[in-house]
């Protein structure tokens, strides 16, 4: 594998983890939102990663295949004074678990940082290789 290919792989991983961080941020931003119906209620989203292959069939990075909504059931809360409450006094709340989302955010940010370090180490190795010719 070419050392230059490492940058492509690390770059694709940085993009994938960036998408993961953005979906986590969206989930956390909507964690406290409420709605008057099941259809209008926000559902937690998660990216689905896939391996990318080059023409030779070798792994060449990671991509985001899709962003899927969680199938965890939505909860109803009794809030009779809320403007979005139904006639029984219930509102629907998202299926976002803030603790899981924070753990997901920490994991994604560490993976992002690791890929930055991989790219930096590769850069340093290339610079040292070039310095050998001096």
Automatic annotation (TrEMBL):
Give the CC-aspect GO terms.
bacterial-type flagellum basal body, rod
Cell compartment(s), UniProt = Bacterial flagellum basal body
Matching entries from Pfam families are given as:
Flg_bb_rod, Flg_bbr_C
Q: Locate the Flagellar basal body rod protein N-terminal domain: which residues?
A: 8-32
Keyword DNA damage set for record: no
**The Flagellar basal-body/hook protein C-terminal domain, residue ranges:** 88-131
Keywords (alphabetical) are: Bacterial flagellum, Cell projection, Cilium, Flagellum
Q: Which GO terms describe its biological process?
A: bacterial-type flagellum-dependent swarming motility
Q: Summarize the subunit comment.
A: The basal body constitutes a major portion of the flagellar organelle and consists of four rings (L,P,S, and M) mounted on a central rod. The rod consists of about 26 subunits of FlgG in the distal portion, and FlgB, FlgC and FlgF are thought to build up the proximal portion of the rod with about 6 subunits each.
Task: State the similarity comment.
Answer: Belongs to the flagella basal body rod proteins family.
Matching entries from PANTHER family are given as: FLAGELLAR BASAL-BODY ROD PROTEIN FLGC, FLAGELLAR PROTEIN
Q: What is this protein called?
A: Flagellar basal-body rod protein FlgC
Protein source organism? Plasticicumulans lactativorans
């Amino acid at each position: 594998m070419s050392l230059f290919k490492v940058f492509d792989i690390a770059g694709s991983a940085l993009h994938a983890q960036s998408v993961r961080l953005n979906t986590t941020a969206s989930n956390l931003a909507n964690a406290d939102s409420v709605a008057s119906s099941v259809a209008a209620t926000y559902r937690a989203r998660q990216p689905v990663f896939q391996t990318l292959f080059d023409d030779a069939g070798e792994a060449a990075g990671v991509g985001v295949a899709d962003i899927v909504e969680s199938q965890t059931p939505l909860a109803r809360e009794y809030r009779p004074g809320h403007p979005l409450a139904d006639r029984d006094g219930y509102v629907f709340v998202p299926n976002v678990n803030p603790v899981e989302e924070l753990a997901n955010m920490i994991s994604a940010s560490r993976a992002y940082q690791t890929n930055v370090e991989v790219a930096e180490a590769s850069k340093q190795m290339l610079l040292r290789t070039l310095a050998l010719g001096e």
